[in-house]
Specification:
This is LysR family transcriptional regulator. By secondary structure, the chain is α/β, with parallel strands linked by helices. It contains ten helices and ten strands.
Length: about 300
Protein backbone atom coordinates (compact mmCIF):
# COMPACT_ATOMS: atom_id res chain seq x y z
CA UNK A 1 0.00 0.00 0.00
CA UNK A 2 1.33 3.42 -0.90
CA UNK A 3 2.02 5.81 1.98
CA UNK A 4 -0.48 8.62 2.57
CA UNK A 5 1.33 11.83 3.46
CA UNK A 6 0.08 14.47 5.83
CA UNK A 7 0.91 18.01 4.73
CA UNK A 8 1.78 18.98 8.31
CA UNK A 9 4.36 16.19 8.51
CA UNK A 10 5.89 17.24 5.19
CA UNK A 11 6.14 20.83 6.45
CA UNK A 12 7.83 19.64 9.64
CA UNK A 13 10.33 17.63 7.60
CA UNK A 14 11.16 20.60 5.31
CA UNK A 15 11.55 22.96 8.26
CA UNK A 16 13.87 20.60 10.15
CA UNK A 17 15.93 20.13 6.97
CA UNK A 18 16.15 23.83 6.12
CA UNK A 19 16.65 25.10 9.67
CA UNK A 20 19.12 22.31 10.49
CA UNK A 21 17.46 21.37 13.75
CA UNK A 22 14.36 20.04 15.50
CA UNK A 23 14.30 22.86 18.04
CA UNK A 24 14.20 25.61 15.37
CA UNK A 25 11.52 23.71 13.44
CA UNK A 26 9.45 23.34 16.62
CA UNK A 27 9.59 27.10 17.19
CA UNK A 28 8.50 27.77 13.59
CA UNK A 29 5.64 25.26 13.88
CA UNK A 30 4.63 26.54 17.35
CA UNK A 31 4.91 22.97 18.58
CA UNK A 32 7.07 21.21 21.17
CA UNK A 33 10.29 19.54 20.06
CA UNK A 34 9.02 16.04 21.05
CA UNK A 35 5.93 16.65 18.90
CA UNK A 36 8.09 17.46 15.87
CA UNK A 37 10.28 14.42 16.54
CA UNK A 38 7.17 12.20 16.70
CA UNK A 39 5.87 13.72 13.45
CA UNK A 40 9.15 13.01 11.63
CA UNK A 41 9.33 9.48 13.05
CA UNK A 42 5.82 8.74 11.79
CA UNK A 43 6.76 10.07 8.34
CA UNK A 44 9.88 7.90 8.27
CA UNK A 45 7.77 4.85 9.20
CA UNK A 46 5.47 5.56 6.25
CA UNK A 47 8.43 5.91 3.90
CA UNK A 48 10.34 2.94 5.31
CA UNK A 49 13.59 4.92 5.41
CA UNK A 50 15.35 7.36 7.72
CA UNK A 51 15.31 11.00 6.65
CA UNK A 52 17.95 12.35 9.04
CA UNK A 53 21.32 11.06 10.14
CA UNK A 54 21.67 10.10 13.75
CA UNK A 55 22.41 13.27 15.66
CA UNK A 56 25.97 13.88 16.79
CA UNK A 57 25.97 14.94 20.41
CA UNK A 58 28.83 17.35 19.66
CA UNK A 59 26.83 19.37 17.10
CA UNK A 60 23.37 20.90 17.14
CA UNK A 61 22.98 20.52 13.38
CA UNK A 62 20.71 17.90 11.86
CA UNK A 63 21.84 16.43 8.53
CA UNK A 64 19.76 14.67 5.86
CA UNK A 65 20.41 11.09 4.83
CA UNK A 66 20.87 10.48 1.06
CA UNK A 67 17.25 9.31 1.01
CA UNK A 68 16.21 12.51 2.81
CA UNK A 69 18.14 14.62 0.29
CA UNK A 70 16.25 12.95 -2.55
CA UNK A 71 12.90 13.30 -0.78
CA UNK A 72 13.31 17.00 0.15
CA UNK A 73 12.49 18.53 -3.28
CA UNK A 74 9.62 16.04 -3.66
CA UNK A 75 8.19 17.12 -0.30
CA UNK A 76 8.48 20.79 -1.29
CA UNK A 77 6.71 20.05 -4.57
CA UNK A 78 3.84 18.33 -2.76
CA UNK A 79 3.50 21.24 -0.31
CA UNK A 80 3.52 23.83 -3.10
CA UNK A 81 0.88 21.87 -5.05
CA UNK A 82 -1.29 21.54 -1.94
CA UNK A 83 -0.98 25.24 -1.09
CA UNK A 84 -1.74 26.30 -4.65
CA UNK A 85 -4.94 24.22 -4.75
CA UNK A 86 -5.90 25.35 -1.26
CA UNK A 87 -5.46 28.99 -2.22
CA UNK A 88 -7.39 28.55 -5.49
CA UNK A 89 -10.33 26.91 -3.73
CA UNK A 90 -10.31 29.50 -0.95
CA UNK A 91 -10.40 32.31 -3.52
CA UNK A 92 -13.20 30.54 -5.38
CA UNK A 93 -15.19 30.09 -2.17
CA UNK A 94 -14.67 33.78 -1.43
CA UNK A 95 -15.76 34.61 -5.05
CA UNK A 96 -12.37 36.20 -5.78
CA UNK A 97 -11.50 33.93 -8.68
CA UNK A 98 -13.23 31.68 -11.21
CA UNK A 99 -15.59 32.44 -14.11
CA UNK A 100 -19.04 33.89 -13.53
CA UNK A 101 -21.62 33.89 -16.34
CA UNK A 102 -24.86 35.84 -16.23
CA UNK A 103 -27.53 37.14 -18.59
CA UNK A 104 -29.87 40.09 -18.17
CA UNK A 105 -32.59 41.99 -19.96
CA UNK A 106 -31.09 45.14 -21.59
CA UNK A 107 -32.86 47.63 -19.32
CA UNK A 108 -31.27 46.29 -16.13
CA UNK A 109 -28.04 45.53 -17.97
CA UNK A 110 -27.61 49.16 -18.99
CA UNK A 111 -29.16 51.10 -16.11
CA UNK A 112 -28.64 49.06 -12.95
CA UNK A 113 -25.91 46.45 -13.31
CA UNK A 114 -22.92 48.61 -14.30
CA UNK A 115 -22.77 50.29 -10.91
CA UNK A 116 -23.46 47.06 -9.03
CA UNK A 117 -20.88 45.02 -10.94
CA UNK A 118 -18.25 47.72 -10.59
CA UNK A 119 -18.60 47.62 -6.82
CA UNK A 120 -18.78 43.81 -6.74
CA UNK A 121 -15.56 43.22 -8.72
CA UNK A 122 -13.65 46.00 -7.00
CA UNK A 123 -11.80 43.54 -4.75
CA UNK A 124 -11.90 40.52 -7.09
CA UNK A 125 -9.32 41.24 -9.83
CA UNK A 126 -8.98 37.52 -10.69
CA UNK A 127 -12.71 36.94 -11.22
CA UNK A 128 -13.70 36.64 -14.88
CA UNK A 129 -17.25 37.62 -15.90
CA UNK A 130 -19.11 36.81 -19.11
CA UNK A 131 -22.18 39.02 -19.46
CA UNK A 132 -24.98 38.58 -22.01
CA UNK A 133 -27.94 40.90 -22.55
CA UNK A 134 -31.09 39.78 -24.35
CA UNK A 135 -34.85 39.67 -23.92
CA UNK A 136 -36.49 37.69 -21.12
CA UNK A 137 -37.24 34.63 -23.26
CA UNK A 138 -33.61 34.38 -24.34
CA UNK A 139 -32.41 34.82 -20.76
CA UNK A 140 -34.65 31.96 -19.62
CA UNK A 141 -33.31 29.72 -22.41
CA UNK A 142 -29.73 30.45 -21.36
CA UNK A 143 -30.60 29.54 -17.76
CA UNK A 144 -32.33 26.33 -18.92
CA UNK A 145 -29.37 25.32 -21.10
CA UNK A 146 -26.95 26.20 -18.27
CA UNK A 147 -25.12 28.64 -20.52
CA UNK A 148 -25.19 31.07 -17.60
CA UNK A 149 -25.12 30.66 -13.83
CA UNK A 150 -28.26 32.76 -13.42
CA UNK A 151 -30.31 35.34 -15.27
CA UNK A 152 -32.08 38.61 -14.61
CA UNK A 153 -35.40 38.85 -16.40
CA UNK A 154 -39.14 39.45 -16.23
CA UNK A 155 -41.31 36.44 -15.44
CA UNK A 156 -44.27 36.36 -17.84
CA UNK A 157 -46.02 33.12 -16.90
CA UNK A 158 -44.74 31.59 -13.67
CA UNK A 159 -46.59 28.30 -14.17
CA UNK A 160 -44.51 27.62 -17.28
CA UNK A 161 -41.26 27.67 -15.31
CA UNK A 162 -41.77 25.24 -12.44
CA UNK A 163 -38.13 24.12 -12.72
CA UNK A 164 -36.86 27.61 -11.94
CA UNK A 165 -36.74 29.90 -8.95
CA UNK A 166 -37.67 33.55 -9.49
CA UNK A 167 -36.62 36.13 -6.91
CA UNK A 168 -38.34 39.49 -7.62
CA UNK A 169 -36.16 42.55 -7.05
CA UNK A 170 -37.08 45.49 -9.28
CA UNK A 171 -40.45 46.78 -10.41
CA UNK A 172 -41.27 49.44 -12.99
CA UNK A 173 -44.38 50.81 -14.65
CA UNK A 174 -45.23 50.62 -18.33
CA UNK A 175 -45.51 53.94 -20.12
CA UNK A 176 -45.40 55.57 -23.52
CA UNK A 177 -42.13 56.74 -25.02
CA UNK A 178 -42.11 59.40 -27.71
CA UNK A 179 -40.02 62.38 -28.90
CA UNK A 180 -40.22 65.45 -26.69
CA UNK A 181 -41.83 67.44 -29.53
CA UNK A 182 -44.56 64.81 -30.07
CA UNK A 183 -48.21 65.81 -29.29
CA UNK A 184 -48.39 63.13 -26.55
CA UNK A 185 -45.39 64.62 -24.75
CA UNK A 186 -47.60 67.28 -23.16
CA UNK A 187 -49.56 64.68 -21.17
CA UNK A 188 -48.70 63.72 -17.60
CA UNK A 189 -50.35 60.32 -18.02
CA UNK A 190 -52.15 58.49 -20.81
CA UNK A 191 -55.13 56.22 -21.51
CA UNK A 192 -54.28 53.35 -23.84
CA UNK A 193 -56.96 54.39 -26.36
CA UNK A 194 -55.13 57.65 -27.03
CA UNK A 195 -52.32 55.67 -28.64
CA UNK A 196 -54.60 54.48 -31.45
CA UNK A 197 -54.31 57.91 -33.08
CA UNK A 198 -50.57 57.53 -33.55
CA UNK A 199 -48.16 55.22 -35.33
CA UNK A 200 -47.32 52.55 -32.80
CA UNK A 201 -44.09 50.54 -32.77
CA UNK A 202 -44.18 47.16 -31.06
CA UNK A 203 -41.18 45.68 -29.22
CA UNK A 204 -40.18 42.74 -27.05
CA UNK A 205 -41.87 44.19 -23.95
CA UNK A 206 -45.20 44.85 -25.70
CA UNK A 207 -46.49 41.47 -24.56
CA UNK A 208 -46.68 42.94 -21.04
CA UNK A 209 -50.02 44.37 -22.23
CA UNK A 210 -51.40 40.91 -23.10
CA UNK A 211 -53.40 40.44 -19.90
CA UNK A 212 -54.66 44.02 -19.67
CA UNK A 213 -57.44 46.02 -21.32
CA UNK A 214 -54.76 47.53 -23.58
CA UNK A 215 -54.37 44.20 -25.38
CA UNK A 216 -55.90 45.58 -28.65
CA UNK A 217 -52.76 47.72 -29.03
CA UNK A 218 -50.77 44.59 -29.84
CA UNK A 219 -52.63 44.25 -33.11
CA UNK A 220 -52.51 47.98 -33.76
CA UNK A 221 -48.70 48.16 -34.02
CA UNK A 222 -47.66 48.87 -37.60
CA UNK A 223 -44.03 48.02 -36.92
CA UNK A 224 -42.13 45.68 -34.62
CA UNK A 225 -38.50 46.29 -33.56
CA UNK A 226 -36.82 43.77 -31.28
CA UNK A 227 -33.44 45.48 -30.84
CA UNK A 228 -33.47 48.23 -28.21
CA UNK A 229 -30.77 50.35 -29.89
CA UNK A 230 -32.68 50.32 -33.19
CA UNK A 231 -35.96 51.06 -31.39
CA UNK A 232 -34.52 54.11 -29.63
CA UNK A 233 -33.04 55.35 -32.91
CA UNK A 234 -36.43 55.06 -34.66
CA UNK A 235 -38.18 56.86 -31.81
CA UNK A 236 -35.62 59.67 -31.84
CA UNK A 237 -36.12 60.02 -35.59
CA UNK A 238 -39.83 60.63 -34.98
CA UNK A 239 -40.93 57.37 -36.61
CA UNK A 240 -43.65 56.74 -34.03
CA UNK A 241 -44.31 55.96 -30.35
CA UNK A 242 -43.98 52.80 -28.29
CA UNK A 243 -44.72 51.37 -24.86
CA UNK A 244 -41.79 50.51 -22.63
CA UNK A 245 -41.07 49.81 -18.96
CA UNK A 246 -39.51 52.78 -17.17
CA UNK A 247 -36.12 51.10 -16.75
CA UNK A 248 -35.89 50.56 -20.51
CA UNK A 249 -35.92 54.28 -21.26
CA UNK A 250 -32.50 55.99 -21.43
CA UNK A 251 -31.87 58.14 -18.37
CA UNK A 252 -32.07 61.90 -18.87
CA UNK A 253 -32.65 61.63 -22.62
CA UNK A 254 -32.45 64.93 -24.49
CA UNK A 255 -34.81 63.74 -27.19
CA UNK A 256 -37.30 61.29 -25.64
CA UNK A 257 -39.83 61.47 -22.83
CA UNK A 258 -41.68 58.85 -20.79
CA UNK A 259 -45.38 59.26 -19.97
CA UNK A 260 -46.86 56.71 -17.52
CA UNK A 261 -49.78 54.65 -18.78
CA UNK A 262 -52.56 55.33 -16.27
CA UNK A 263 -55.27 53.21 -17.88
CA UNK A 264 -54.44 50.45 -17.44
CA UNK A 265 -51.65 50.58 -14.87
CA UNK A 266 -49.28 47.80 -15.90
CA UNK A 267 -46.15 46.98 -13.92
CA UNK A 268 -43.25 44.69 -14.68
CA UNK A 269 -41.41 42.61 -12.08
CA UNK A 270 -37.78 41.82 -12.77
CA UNK A 271 -35.71 39.47 -10.70
CA UNK A 272 -33.11 36.76 -10.51
CA UNK A 273 -33.85 33.51 -12.32
CA UNK A 274 -32.00 30.30 -11.56
CA UNK A 275 -32.57 26.57 -11.80
CA UNK A 276 -34.32 25.33 -8.67
CA UNK A 277 -32.40 22.10 -8.14
CA UNK A 278 -28.92 23.31 -9.07
CA UNK A 279 -26.57 25.07 -6.68
CA UNK A 280 -24.84 28.22 -7.85
CA UNK A 281 -21.06 28.47 -7.99
CA UNK A 282 -19.58 30.45 -5.08
CA UNK A 283 -18.96 33.57 -7.24
CA UNK A 284 -22.50 33.43 -8.68
CA UNK A 285 -24.06 32.96 -5.22
CA UNK A 286 -21.95 35.82 -3.90
CA UNK A 287 -23.21 38.12 -6.67
CA UNK A 288 -26.83 37.10 -6.03
CA UNK A 289 -26.38 37.82 -2.31
CA UNK A 290 -24.70 41.12 -3.15
CA UNK A 291 -27.56 42.20 -5.45
CA UNK A 292 -30.18 41.22 -2.87
CA UNK A 293 -28.34 43.09 -0.11
CA UNK A 294 -28.08 46.23 -2.25
CA UNK A 295 -31.74 46.08 -3.28
CA UNK A 296 -32.86 45.60 0.34
CA UNK A 297 -30.76 48.57 1.40
CA UNK A 298 -32.39 50.71 -1.27
CA UNK A 299 -29.27 51.11 -3.40
Amino acid sequence: MLPEFKIAQLRHFVWVAELKGFHAAAEKAHRTQPAISLSIRDLENKLGESLFEKRNAKTAKTELTPFGQYFLPKAKELIEHHDRISQDMTLLAEHKTGHLRLASVPSIASQVLPELLLEFVNDTPELHISFFDDNSDAVYRMVENQQVDFGIAHLFHEQEHSDKTFIPIWEDQIGVVCPKDHPLAAHEELHWKELRKHRLIGNGTSRLLEDSEARPLLGHSQFYISNMISLIAMLEAGFGVTTLPRYAVPKESDTLCFIPLSTPVVTRRIGIVKLTNKSLTPPAQALVDFILARSNSGK
